[in-house]
Design brief:
It is a single chain. With about 230 residues, the protein is of the alpha+beta class. It is built from seven helices and ten strands. The protein is about 35% helix and about 25% strand. The strands form five sheets. It has a two-stranded antiparallel sheet with strand order 1-4. It is an enzyme of class 2 (transferase). GO terms for molecular function: DNA binding; DNA-directed RNA polymerase activity; protein dimerization activity. It holds the Pfam family RNA_pol_A_CTD.
């Protein structure tokens, strides 16, 4: 039961480094969270939580806790993979301060118009963060993800644009073509890649000496740079 109670303790941590919290109690008493000795970087949100009940005057309870920041939920099996000494016990770590979220969208009148919507969000936390700060943090995370995605899309667009420009400026001499097919194209005043793309397969077949094998070779060469005949 003590371990279950310890998992219900909620701390605010003002440090990126793990912090030590100690507990030393003797005698017949109910030991609450308020009995914990905290460093300046730690604040206990629920000091009235009962950790244990000592039922004998000679009873004593001593422990040292490690408190640190994290994200989400970590089972004790994962936490055991870290460096642990003899006598240490790993607990499931709950780093999620949000207990419940609900929302609803309602119609809203603005002046004479009734086609507006109102969004109501209900947030319940464990006390380590306010609902307002939780919502702001959620917005910040969402914005950072959207900014990252938009930046990546823009980079891909720019890369694709510069690549397309480079390809469409290519000479047919840059394609992997046999000298026979290259000469046929040059004799018909086809010198740039776009000039090939302007022609259909039937038009290319009509070129003297091209034939089906020549068109097939041409199509394979274009496919290597991501292009196809119309």
């Amino acid at each position: 039961h003590i371990l279950m109670n310890l998992k219900q303790l909620r701390f605010k941590v003002f440090s990126e480094e793990p912090q030590k919290v100690t507990l030393k109690q003797k005698g017949e008493k109910e030991v609450k969270g308020a009995a914990l000795e905290l460093p300046p970087q730690i604040e206990l949100v629920n000091p009235n939580l009962t950790i244990a009940t000592l039922s004998d005057k000679k009873a004593s309870l001593e422990m040292e806790l490690q408190v640190e920041k994290g994200v989400g939920y970590q089972v004790q099996e994962l936490r055991k993979k870290g460096k642990m000494e003899i006598g240490d016990m790993a607990l499931d770590a709950i780093f999620t301060p949000i207990k419940r979220v609900n929302y609803k969208v309602e119609n809203m009148r603005v002046g004479g118009r009734t086609d507006f919507d109102r969004l109501e969000i209900e947030i319940e936390t464990d006390g380590t963060i306010t609902p307002e700060n939780a919502l702001q943090k959620a917005f910040d995370i969402l914005l950072s993800h959207l900014t990252f995605l938009a930046s990546n899309l823009e980079q891909k667009k720019e890369t694709k644009g510069s690549l397309s420009k480079e390809i469409f400026q290519k000479s047919i001499k840059d394609l992997e073509l046999s000298s026979k097919i290259l000469n046929i194209l040059l004799k018909n005043k086809i010198e740039k890649v776009p000039e090939i793309l302007d022609k259909s397969e039937e038009e290319l077949l009509s070129l003297k000496g091209m034939g089906k094998k020549g068109v097939k070779e041409l199509k394979k060469s274009l496919e290597k740079i991501g292009l196809t005949l119309k």
